[in-house]
Amino acid sequence: MNFCSNTNSALFFSSVDKISDEIWRNLDCESNVYFHRSFLKAIEENHPDIIFSYIILIDKDKKPIAFASIQIVDFYIDTIKNDIEILIRKLKNIGRKFHIIPDKKPLKLLICGNTFVSGEHGIFIKQKQDKKLLIKKLAKAILHFSNADKKLKIDAFLLKDFINESLLITDELKDFNYHPFSVEPNMVLTLDENWQNFDDYLASMKTKFRVKARKAHKQSAAITIEEVTKEDLVNQLPEMTALYKKVASNADFNLGNFNLETYTNLKEKFGENYILKTYWLNHKIVGFISGVINQNSLDAHFVGIDYELNREYAIYQRMLYDYIEIAISKRLKTINFGRTASEIKSSVGAEPRDLTMYFRHKKSITNRILKLFLQRIQPTPFHQKFPFKNANNPNEE
Questions:
Q1: Could you tell me if 266 and 175 lie in one domain?
Q2: Which InterPro entries does the record match to this protein (predicted)?
Q3: Does residue 191 share a domain with residue 339?
Q4: Disulfide check for 54: which of 13, 100, 211, 308 has CB 3.0–4.6 Å away?
């Protein structure tokens, strides 16, 4: 495609490799895995169906001060299966009636964020910068980019996964006709600094939840858990991919299908900081977990599960406890479990952290209609569990 021309405040790149070492040094963003060129390159290399682009915002001295990751995907509205489906269906019917939403074509969606991981992983801003001003500059840069190549035919824009503390800044996007809406929360477990091992974690729980954890370990006792090396991946990827697809097909919606061959690059670049374990039963893979250690956090990524064996062997429950055991052993502060299966994650101690996305359709009439529907979208309610004893009453059972 013909690539976008630079402006006085923004530089545009079609690949991670095209961004110079000097820019990366000046940004100084790579201590965060999600803004590390090796992580971005691994995603980019293994997903040829997605158009990847990167925006560098610069100051008056042409110094880089912010970074944004862009992906352009084909999004099929019919794939949404959660409780907003009825709203989407109504919107779709209205849109098609007035010829503002294509009948069978996918929506060409420009995403600022990480398509495959929930969280604030799309925009990096250097310290001591005017963040509100830079969000406005980013919105202008995205519009410039979308208009630069008419062949792209971008229909809509999505800036994803902002925590509540960021909304004072990101609400500047409303001036650019973006509409905020809430999505499923990220489930986060904050680790107690007194937990030296998994037994300490269990000891902090109320009896009911401690019994549940021990039962899951008993049910899964026949399962063997193995570290996956880069060499193992060649033979194990087909089975792992099949298990991942089973999980992905149950998701409310996916912005894109993750190519598990990406793990080869991630293990090569991040070594022990990229977590990858397989679960075996009778010499067969019945599950896997993946995740990355990012600063003081363990971020759970994709899992694969043999659902036919899940209930009998408590595979998924065991996975959650294994993430916790890993994080404790590495003296981390938090685990980001992501935003699916919220209730079971709360039963192991995770709490919800709200996330907001901003959406804008390129056509103004469609955008105004969308606003009415997006205002009605709410995350699926769930029953929050409280598995830990009250700190003021350590004898609570």
A1: no
A2: Acyl_CoA_acyltransferase (IPR016181), FemAB-like (IPR007434)
A3: yes
A4: 13
Crossing angle between the packed helical segments 37-45 and 262-270, to the nearest 10 degrees: 160
Residue 391 domain flag:
no
Do 294 and 320 lie in one domain? The reply is yes
The pLDDT value recorded for residue 83 is 43
Q: What is the band of 236 on the pLDDT scale with cuts at 50, 70, 90?
A: very high
What CATH number is given to the structural domain containing 233?
3.40.630.30
Looking at the predicted structure, is the pLDDT value of residue 301 above 60?
yes
Residues 245 and 221 in one domain: yes
- pLDDT reading at 391 higher than 80: no
In angstroms, what CA-CA distances link 177 with 152, 181, 217?
21, 13, 50
pLDDT tens per residue across span 121-169: 999 999 999 999 999 999 999 999 999 877 888 999 999 999 999 999 9
Beta bridge partners of 290: 276
Q: What is the b/e burial string over 243-259, where b = at least 16 CB atoms within 10 angstroms of the residue's CB?
A: bbeebeeeebebbbebb
- What pLDDT, in 10s, does the model give residues 87-110? 455 555 555 555 555 556 778 899
pLDDT for 369: 83
For residue 233, give its domain range.
187-352
Q: Is 317 within a domain?
A: yes
Asked whether 210 and 202 are in contact (CB, 8 A), the reply is: yes
Answer left, alpha or beta for residue 154, where phi above 0 means left and psi between -120 and 50 means alpha.
beta
- Show the tokens assigned to 109: 């969606």
Token pair, residue 259, equals: 């190519």
Structural domain count of the chain: 2
- Cα distance between residue 359 and residue 138, in whole Å: 14
